[in-house]
Amino acid sequence: MTHLLLALLFATAPSRAAQEGCKWEKLSDPQAGVEAWVQRCNFGDRKIDFFAKDRSLFMRYSDGGKPDAVVDVIDLLPGETAEAGLKRIFAARTPKSLASRCVLAPFHGNDPTPAGVKRFTFVPDAKYKKELDAKNDSGDIPEPPCGAWGDQPDDVEYFETQSGARKVLYVRWGQDTPLFDDATLHILK
């Protein structure tokens, strides 16, 4: 039922107004495994749009540079719970010296979370956090304590699970409100 509600919500409209110079459009790619409301933007000398490739949603800039992956779709193993899958995915992409010192935790950076969705990140365990707090008194933005797939001190990134889905998302929200609608991301079966 929750999955149906998410699909109905997705089909109606994005959750917020488009940024000035942009318009919302629905992007659905069964091969990538994701649907999203994304903004196509025209800022005069810079245009921004989105496309799906392989198992990711990318943001592309007309003035050059490599497109940025903003959402990755990652399969769970047969019989694997979402939380167990997140731990496996994180451990496979993170140096063991960091992964062993980080724990799965709920992510609350851009609440409210839609119905049927859970968001997670990896944060330092209590002992590691105490060590980090003792070292970082400079006021500088530290390196991500749990690596590229863990909690980010200067960016919003998180894992997302959706009720009934056999995949999870890794969402790179960024520093500012993204040009994709994180509240209506939908994992396709």
Give the secondary structure arrangement, pairings included.
Blueprint (H helix, E strand, L loop, with lengths): L1 H11 L9 E8 L4 E9 L4 E7 L2 E6 L6 E8 L6 H12 L2 H4 L2 E5 L10 E8 L1 H10 L20 E7 L4 E8 L11 E2 L2
Antiparallel strand pairs: 1-2, 2-3, 2-10, 3-4, 4-5, 5-9, 6-7, 7-8, 8-9
Residue share in helices? Answer: 10-25%
* Stretches with pLDDT under 50, minimum 5 residues: 1-11
| Oligomeric category | single chain
Could you state the order of secondary-structure elements as H and E? HEEEEEHHEEHEEE
Secondary structure class reads: alpha+beta
What is the number of independent domains?
1
Radius of gyration: 17 Å
Count of individual helical segments: 4
Question: Can you walk me through this structure?
Answer:
- With 189 residues, this protein is of the alpha+beta class.
- It has one domain.
- Helices cover 20% and strands 36% of the residues.
- The chain has 4 helices and 10 strands.
- Strands 1, 2, 3, 4, 5, 6, 7, 8, 9 and 10 form a 10-stranded antiparallel beta sheet that branches.
- The two termini are 15 Å apart.
Which tags fit this structure?
single chain, 189 residues, alpha+beta, 10-stranded antiparallel sheet, 4 helices, 10 strands
Summed up, what is this model?
The chain is an alpha+beta fold and 189 residues long. Helices cover 20% and strands 36% of the residues. The protein has one domain (2-187).
